[in-house]
Write a structure and sequence with these properties.
The protein is mainly α and 274 residues long. It has 13 helices and no strands.
Length: 274
């Protein structure tokens, strides 16, 4: 069943698509563009702004899992209440202002960015909008409740842990000792972002990871199409498991273990392509 979704009026989508643009700016080393987007995000999405508060409501539903049915139902009910209690005219005007800035300063193609959790955010938006039929709303709410009560491995809110200098230096030193002779450009980029992540609460690292994980997923899909792989059941199974692992990173806390796994996957993908 298809539901109408005006993504430009979905505050969470606006935030995520800006993250994608920030990613591109970081990868392209366009510091002016990066700083502009960071400034825009701080302006519209800091915790004290209406859009920032609305984003928090989306995140409460989108990033919570493993709770009991009672808690899930209460969370959904309170989230709907919080959303409807906000000044909708003010939210609309701020969204319009933000959309206009994006169109003028970044480009209309920003809204065509691929957002991994798009379907989930669209479902939540439809529930908040409350303009669907009774049957449609029940189906949408059942989907959200199912996500809230399902248990996912290592699911946490998408925030950066505190990383101190000693931890970073130890991690980088150990990795360089082991792989210094064969480190790739992508691996070096990832290490650099991780080193700097504690200075900006991981904003650039998160943006880079979103882009890099999507690239790796596409690479894995391409490898699976290769004849020497597609004809080998064991290889097909292993690369499918790799794709599942990459998909799970979006729901995990960024730490040394995740970075190490991604570094190894980067190396494996490069070797497979070569």
């Amino acid at each position: 069943m298809k539901f109408k979704h005006n993504k430009k009026r979905n505050t969470a989508f606006l935030y995520e698509t800006l993250i994608k643009e920030l990613t591109k700016a970081v990868v392209d080393k366009d510091l002016q563009r990066k700083d502009f987007i960071v400034g825009m995000m701080k302006k519209y999405f800091n915790s004290n702004t209406p859009l920032g508060k609305e984003l928090r409501i989306y995140r409460d539903l989108n990033e919570t899992s493993g709770v009991d049915l009672y808690t899930a139902e209460r969370l959904l009910a309170e989230s709907k209440k919080d959303f409807s209690g906000m000044d909708r005219k003010q939210i609309f005007n701020l969204q319009t202002e933000l959309i206009s800035e994006i169109n003028k300063a970044i480009g209309k193609d920003t809204f065509n960015n691929f957002v991994p959790n798009y379907k989930s955010l669209a479902t939540i938006y439809q529930i908040f909008l409350n303009q669907s039929s009774t049957k449609e709303l029940i189906l949408l709410e059942r989907k959200v409740l199912s996500n809230l009560i399902s248990k996912k491995n290592n699911v946490v809110a998408k925030q950066m842990p505190h990383v101190n200098n000693l931890t970073l230096k130890t991690f980088i030193s150990n990795y360089n000792k082991k792989y210094s002779d064969s480190i790739t450009e992508q691996q070096q980029q990832l290490l650099n972002k991780y080193i700097l992540s504690f200075t900006d609460n991981g904003l650039e690292l998160k943006a880079y990871l979103n882009e890099e994980v999507q690239r790796l997923k596409q690479e894995v899909a391409t490898i699976l199409e290769q004849e020497q792989v597609s004809n080998d059941k064991d290889l097909v199974t292993k690369f499918n498991e790799l794709g599942t692992l990459l998909e799970s990173f979006g729901r995990q806390r960024v730490d040394n273990k995740m970075i190490t796994k991604i570094l190894k996957i980067q190396n494996l993908v490069k070797e497979s392509k070569d």
